[in-house]
Amino acid sequence: KVTGDKEISAPVYIILINNSNKFITYTKKLIDTKDFKFEEVLEGGYTLFSFIDRNENGSFDNGNYIPYSGSEKFFIFEEELKIKGNWETDNVFINF
User: Fold this and answer.
1) CA-CA distance, 81 to 36, in Å (whole number)?
2) Residue 94 burial (CB < 10 Å; 0-12/13-18/19+)?
3) In degrees rounded to 5, what are phi and psi of residue 50?
């Protein structure tokens, strides 16, 4: 579930990155919902990265010095997610 101090009006991207093979990734784009679910994920350890796409270009922007623009808000889940076949992983909260 995605939560935050303020109402999130831009799309939120959630990306699962396989820790042993960086080419295996799963991406979800949330627009009007705060709940998310990935299906048919290969077993393994994953890092969860999420960001609010305020300029709606579909990719994470880490900002610029000149002209100054701040980074898009992002979140990295503090623990490795261990995914097992045919199991559900609950209680994953993304807090902006």
Assistant:
1) 15
2) buried
3) -140, 150
pTM: 0.87
- Provide the pairing of β-strand 2-3 with 94-95: parallel
The Cα–Cα gap between 22 and 75 comes to 18
Residue 17 to residue 46: CA distance in whole angstroms: 5
Per-residue DSSP letter, 64:
B
User: Is 63 within 8 Å of 71 (Cβ atoms)?
Assistant: yes
18-71 pLDDT per residue, tens: 999 999 999 999 988 888 999 899 999 999 999 999 999 999 999 889 999 899
The residue whose two tokens read 């305020």 is 54
47-58 pLDDT, tens digit per residue, is 999 999 999 999
